[in-house]
Each structure stands twice: as C-alpha cells, then as structure tokens.
Design goal:
Blueprint lengths: L12 H20 L7 H8 L3 H7 L3 H19 L9 H14 L2 H8 L4 H18 L8 H24 L6 H14 L5
C-alpha cells in the first residue's frame, strides 16, 4: 500500500490529517459513484491535494479500497473473536447486526447498493473468513451440509441487515436484532 513506508512518520499530525482527508474524500466519492468511475485525479481535486501526495501513501486506488475492506473485516473479526457457529449463532448474529449498524454510510452503501456488489463480496469474505475457518460442523455433517448451513445463516444475516437499511431503519435496532435471533434460533414459527 505505502510506497515508501520508511520515510513516512505516521505519528506526525500532518500525515494523519492528510490520510484522513484522503479517506474521507474517498468515502464521499464511493457514496456518489460506482468504484470503477472514481479516479485518483477526481479524488485529489476534491481533497485539494496533488497526485504526488496521494501516491506518497497509496500506489493505487485499489490499495485504498482494500484498506477500507480490511478495516471493516478486521474490526468485525476482533469484535467476534472466540465465537463459533453453530454454538454461538445467536451471539454472532447480535454482534454482526450491532456492528453493521455502527459502521456508517459507506458500509451501508457497500452492503445495500448494487453499485458496489463486487466490493460487498470482498467485505463479506473478509468479515467471514475467520468465522468459517474456526467453526466446525457438528459430528456426522458432511462438508456440503455444513457449507449449506454456513451460507444460509450468513446470507440471512446480511440480507436482514440490508432490508432493515432499505426500510429506513424504521424498526428499532434492538427489535430487529430480536427478530433476527428468534428466526435463526427458533425458526419462522411465531409462538
């Protein structure tokens, strides 16, 4: 990502402010445009920096995008460390929905907009890779059965969050989480 890490002092307030401007500008552009339409030139013009400044910190826009994707993934993995499917399905669902609700407009745009589907797939992969690796199927389950379970549970979590955002977050977060956990743990019966 960084072209010459040895010469950059990331503790320097000016460096931190420059990186913040780059990231905030990138986020604003992502909220407006599909990623392939964003250019370094447009980002630099909007951020009021020159290209040389951008390239001091990032080799390409893809590096900035990858950093964004990993930021979501790393934070979620840290938050849910030690939780495993199927034993912790309710807790993982709760943590996932709370985490997602806290992330802000860029996360919601990536999760809910068809304009960012490729990025959404990468974010999902980043957020779920550790959970998939650490969760083991119950005894007697085939790899294919376990894959169906994992895909079904995680698809449900993502889809429910997406629907909640598309509905304008009209249902209070805690109620939405209760509904999600109830569906995953008790099934679709309303008793």
């Amino acid at each position: 990502m960084d072209m010459d890490m040895g010469t950059i002092n990331y503790n320097d307030l000016r460096v931190q402010k420059t990186l913040e401007v780059i990231k905030n500008t990138f986020e604003a552009l992502m909220l407006e445009l599909p990623y392939p339409k964003i250019t370094v030139t447009a980002l630099c013009e909007r951020a009021r920096i020159n290209k040389k400044t951008f390239y001091r910190y990032y080799s390409t826009l893809d590096d900035l995008l990858e950093e964004t994707e990993k930021r979501f993934g790393s934070a979620y993995i840290e938050r849910t460390r030690g939780l495993h499917y199927p034993d912790d399905v309710e807790r993982i669902t709760r943590e996932f929905l709370e985490f997602s609700a806290e992330q802000g407009p860029l996360y919601d745009a990536i999760v809910c907009s068809t304009r960012h589907e490729d990025i959404f797939d990468k974010v999902v992969t980043e957020m779920e890779k550790e959970r998939y690796a650490e969760s083991l199927p119950p005894e007697g389950w085939s790899a294919e059965e376990w894959n169906l379970y994992m895909k079904g549970v995680t698809f449900f979590q993502w889809r429910l969050y997406r629907q909640w955002v598309e509905d304008g977050r009209a249902v209070p977060l805690e109620r939405m989480i209760d509904i999600a956990c109830s569906l995953l743990v008790k099934g679709a019966t309303l008793k």
